Amino acid sequence: EKIRIEIISLCITESRIASDETIQQLFVECRLYNFLEEETPLSLPKPTSGQRIHYNYSNVIHVDKANNRARREYLKSMLLKPDLHTDSLRFTVVSDPPEDEQDLECEDIGFAYVSLREIFQKQRDIIEQDIDVFDSQDDSAVIGKLKVTVEALHVLRAVYEECKDD
Q: How many domains is the chain built from?
């Protein structure tokens, strides 16, 4: 009765991000619709081009009936109403200001998405897969790859069976 998310690693491809010296430390945030926002506990030094930084961060989103009914209802509505644009987990790559410049704000530099509906349609979890990170200033530009695992198929099937029973 849970969705398991793992943020494994990040690489930055040639882009404005690689050459921007104000961007030094990066962390990754993960959000499920309006419910949950989690972030990697560490921000890591920005990788040079072609290198990866490894977060190896794992998190579980509980969607059991007893304690997390709202999240479960959200999953049901997402499976039943394919017009929703909210069927994705959103990963945000965030620039963390350096220690000596704490007056600077954290800045979102890129976004990556995993569609839960697609996991259900393909009947396949995403295991250690690279997904594109799109530039926050130009969503047609890919600035890197985020390697993630999203295990949600089991709970999506269970929720779908409940839908049929309702």
A: 1
Instruction: Return phi, psi of residue 117, to 5°.
Output: -60, -40
129-154: pLDDT as tens digits: 999 999 999 989 999 999 999 999 99
Q: Which two tokens stand for residue 5?
A: 């998310």
For residue 97, what are the domain limits?
Answer: 2-165
CA distance 65 to 76: 12
Q: Which residues of 74-101 are buried (b: 16+ CB within 10 A; e: fewer)?
A: bbbebbeeeeeeebbbebbbbbbbeeee
CATH number assigned to the domain comprising residue 160: 2.60.40.150
By CB atoms closer than 10 A (0-12, 13-18, 19+), residue 52 is middle
Question: CA-CA distance, 33 to 36, in Å (whole number)?
Answer: 7
pLDDT tens string 71-111: 888 898 888 876 656 788 999 999 998 777 767 788 999 99
